[in-house]
User: Which sequence fits this backbone?
């Protein structure tokens, strides 16, 4: 989600210094402070002009007229994408603590995940969330598409445990405009047979990673529809609403000045305690292709779809059993966080749990 702005090296350096100073102090930053504490070799007036430019394009703003400037969500995004490097030393410290404190041979997995979340919360100073691992061996037993009307069909999913789920899906135009209901039902049955042939017995965790460019020629015109169905299957089977999330560190992070408004705190607590089914899709995502470059997911402020998280940053990464993602680790804190440390901690925790499960 990198943003493009025509900034000079000086602008980048001043933005970096402003973000770091504000993260460390929680106080708006002025040009005089930057001139005194950072060796820019330019005058305070030059720094002030540069900060004005950064404010004009939306990377900094003034909380009130007489104050200095603080980073916006976009300013943090530029900082994370271009101006910082994760603190690998913090990641190694977390791995050492996990090795010392966690004994995977003597405890139930739920107990270990709870303890791992507590260590992560303590070291990061933020709310730590770890989903319990899902069964990576669950497989698809059967699915069926049934037409309901001219625009909708019902997808029925049966897993190898014979757990059943159903979901409404929108039909593509090629089916929506079909006047012969019997022909539509016949095509849906053929498509159901095709999907069962391709997917039966496959691990649910691998469905989103299939290469649909290799579909049989006769079904190429269904590719987009199949991709939508596949995402829905993965979402429904990988993110059951009953999946527990280990959450630690709430009391520590709520002491931060960003959470001084009671209504904001109440909304966040309600989400964490009562609406985990809404929170889960934001933490545990299974991408179609997972690459090292986008392994850690970072949503800053308004980039979060859930309103209680609009004043927060969510950093998350999946952990794996073998090559299959089975759970996720996340940190929630104010947008004013030490991103270098937090990103390294989440990545290290995901690596550790993946190694332990494998």
Assistant:
């Amino acid at each position: 989600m990198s943003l493009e702005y025509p900034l000079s090296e000086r602008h980048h350096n001043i933005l970096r210094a402003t973000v770091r100073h504000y993260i460390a102090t929680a106080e708006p930053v002025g040009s005089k402070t930057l001139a005194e504490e950072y060796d820019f070799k330019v005058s305070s007036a030059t720094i002030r002009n540069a900060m004005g430019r950064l404010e004009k394009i939306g990377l900094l703003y003034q909380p009130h007229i007489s104050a200095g400037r603080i980073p916006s969500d976009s300013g943090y995004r530029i900082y994370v994408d271009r101006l910082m490097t994760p603190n690998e030393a913090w990641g190694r410290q977390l791995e050492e603590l996990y090795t010392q404190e966690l004994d995977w041979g003597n405890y139930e997995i739920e107990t270990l995940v709870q303890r791992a979340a507590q260590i992560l919360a303590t070291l990061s100073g933020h709310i730590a969330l770890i989903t319990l691992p899902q069964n990576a061996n669950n497989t698809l037993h059967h699915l069926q598409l049934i037409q309901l009307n001219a625009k909708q069909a019902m997808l029925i999913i049966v897993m190898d445990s014979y757990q059943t789920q159903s979901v409404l899906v929108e039909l593509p135009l090629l089916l929506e405009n079909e006047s012969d209901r019997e022909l539509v039902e016949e095509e849906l049955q053929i498509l159901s047979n095709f999907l069962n042939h391709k997917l039966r017995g496959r691990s649910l965790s691998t469905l989103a990673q299939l290469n649909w460019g290799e579909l049989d020629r006769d079904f190429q015109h269904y590719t987009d529809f199949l991709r939508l169905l596949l995402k829905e299957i993965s979402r429904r089977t990988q993110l059951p609403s009953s999946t527990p999330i280990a959450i630690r560190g709430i009391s520590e992070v709520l002491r931060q000045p960003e959470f001084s408004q009671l209504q904001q705190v109440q909304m966040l607590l309600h989400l964490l305690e009562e609406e985990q089914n809404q929170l889960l899709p934001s933490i545990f995502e299974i991408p179609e292709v997972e690459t090292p470059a986008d392994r850690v997911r970072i949503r800053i402020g308004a980039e979060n779809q859930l309103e209680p998280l609009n004043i927060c940053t969510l950093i998350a990464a999946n952990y794996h059993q073998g090559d299959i993602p089975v759970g996720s680790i996340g940190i929630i804190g104010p947008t004013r966080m030490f991103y270098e440390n937090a990103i390294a901690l989440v990545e290290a925790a995901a690596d550790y749990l993946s190694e332990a499960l494998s």
